[in-house]
Design a protein that fits this description.
The protein is about 40% helix and about 20% strand. The protein has 7 helices and 12 strands. Helix 1 packs antiparallel against helix 2. The longest helix is centred in the N-terminal third of the chain and has 25 residues, at about 40-65. It is globular, with a radius of gyration of 18 Å. The chain binds D-MYO-inositol-1-phosphate (IPD) and calcium ion (CA). D-MYO-inositol-1-phosphate binds next to strand 2.
């Protein structure tokens, strides 16, 4: 059930505040020489430590501001809800970019209702995605529209535009870490790539989906996303007038997500669905 309007406003404010704080932490405390040693396991460990530290910060702040709510994050440590709301957070989305100092990583914070541990059994009601390097902060609450706050503090309301046809569309996607899943993703990509203008693999699912809301990508699909990768960006996109689903009638789940403006979404969903069916 959707929380009442005033509570939704509070949830959005909290998401924006804590995402910004965690964003500052991961930028300010990123060791300058992390990329130099990236072939060593220590570099990966530092990323894991920063992931955990950012999540601990998010959990502590959310615990102070909203003690009754549940918590689910990408790293260790969750908490069951004593309210209808659970916070679903990705402390660093785009960890490989973070390791290489590529400025396309994000903190994603969403308030959701339902059970986020069960694919398809939940939905976001407020959320924020911040790229702490560029300062871009995407935020939304159910029924409140989608907004981009720039590094200069200006607010721009987002609305997905009239998209091009699929053949002229710039499509985002991503790949998981498991080699078998990558083989399957590559098989689908073989069918999608000849049908679009081009493909981008930016490295942060949360930023990819917000990019569709902003118009810097036309559409996006990916297999294997977890709740924390998609929760906040899903709401940013739908509040901007976009469509975010799984295949066919399915809700967005790790099986597949497809994102785009209404006029493009159906075409991409069909191509991805047929590619999956042909190859499975
Ligand atoms: C990953 C990124 C990537 C996507 C992967 C995610 P992480 O999250 O969002 O773009 O392709 O599926 O797992 O590991 O950087 O938090
Ligand atoms: Ca992620």
């Amino acid at each position: 059930m959707l929380p009442p309007g005033e509570e939704l406003e509070e949830l959005e404010r909290v998401a924006v505040a804590v995402a910004g704080e965690a964003g500052r932490l991961i930028v300010d405390e990123r060791p300058r020489d992390l990329g130099v040693s990236k072939t060593k396991s220590t570099a990966t460990d530092i990323v894991t430590v920063m992931d955990q530290r950012a999540q601990d910060l998010l959990r502590a702040r959310l615990g102070e501001l909203r003690p009754q709510d549940g918590f689910l994050g990408e790293e260790e440590g969750g908490a069951a809800a004593r309210s209808d709301v659970t916070w679903v957070v990705d402390p660093i989305d785009g960890t490989v970019n973070y390791l290489y100092a590529l400025p396309a990583y994000a903190v994603s914070v969403a308030a959701v209702v339902g059970n986020p541990a069960t694919p398809g059994a939940w939905q976001p009601v407020a959320g924020a995605v911040v790229n702490p390097v560029t300062g871009q902060l995407f935020h939304a609450r159910a029924g409140g529209g989608a907004w981009l706050r720039t590094g200069e503090g200006e607010e721009e309301r987002l609305a997905v535009g009239a998209p091009p046809v699929l053949a002229q569309a710039l499509a985002g996607t991503g790949f998981g870490y498991d080699p078998e899943r990558r083989r399957e993703q590559a098989r689908v990509l073989v069918e999608v790539l000849p049908r679009v203008r081009d493909i981008r693999r930016l490295g942060s699912a949360a930023l990819d989906i917000c990019a569709v809301a902003h118009g810097t990508l036309d559409c996006y699909y990916e297999q294997g996303l977890n709740a924390w990768d998609m929760a906040a960006a899903w709401l940013v996109l739908t509040e901007a007038g976009g469509v975010f689903t799984g295949l066919g009638d399915a809700p967005p789940t790790p099986d597949m997500v497809v994102a785009g403006a209404p006029a493009l979404h159906g075409e991409l969903e069909r191509v991805v669905r047929e590619a999956r069916a042909a190859r499975s």
